[in-house]
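Before any further analysis, backbone shapes were mapped to integers, which produced the following:

***
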Amino acid sequence: MDFVLNGRTIALDPTTVRARVTAAPPDPIRTHWVEIDGRRWPPKQAFRVATALHDEPFISHFALRVFQRLGFQTSPIPGESPRSSGPRGAVAAPSPSPHTDTDALEAFRRLDSFMASNALTSTLAALEAKLQGVSRADAEEIVASSGFDEDLVDCALVVRERVGMLDTLMHAAVITQVVPMILEDGELVTKRPSLGAGNDPDRVFDLETTHRVAEFKLSSWKGHDGGRQRGLFADVVGLSMDDTGRRRQVYVVGPLPVAFLKTSNRNAVKTLSKGSLRVRDAPGLTPMMTVAEFTDLANIEVIDLTGLLPGLR
């Protein structure tokens, strides 16, 4: 069987696995295992011995999948349905176990190494060009040399599982830090701040106090930010609809979103074309008005969070 790991095509067969792995004493089993001729080895140890790839990074899931395809029985792969995995037709039971810390660390390292050595946008553009008009045989060669192998996908899934709530965590942490920085004497928080994701009709804004209503947008802008522009301006229009006389504030990260709200000539109505009916029908919004004009007329204070938390970027 041939497989690709880190851009290298590697051949492996059951006879080679048995000859090489059974000669090595097994290390202690922690979470995952592969059974070879009645004995169990940690899959990463068995994989390195079988392939002689002692320095290539990979995670246990990749090794387990290779051994399963070669007909060996293994421990279940978390998140995957049970499958027949051995010459005796043994079926692995569903596994409730999460990814191990060791695999998570290896996955982070693999992704970090890949991203550090590849400018993703240009890499994808080059790969798209190579794949246009190819046959299956050509596509297989391109995949083998691209670095976008099965282990990379496994690593990305592990990392996504670990950091899937990272944006929510950042949103909550930033608001929590900023609140004591901005509250004035006599100012009180009047509603529970909206620290997490989700739409709560009773909490229209991220922060409401006796003195202000505020939204926090923590996206890092890169210069081509149409979607971020629409989302940010929809929040600005939402702030404009508060009629309590409190200060209306939007907190952003960096000069690009600040410049967009204060100087953009983009048509305000068209910017809201994908927004909710509520913001598209906002009072004061006219067909010829620009984003900057509306932001100014609505008395929206645009605040760069890097002035409060310099580490943001």
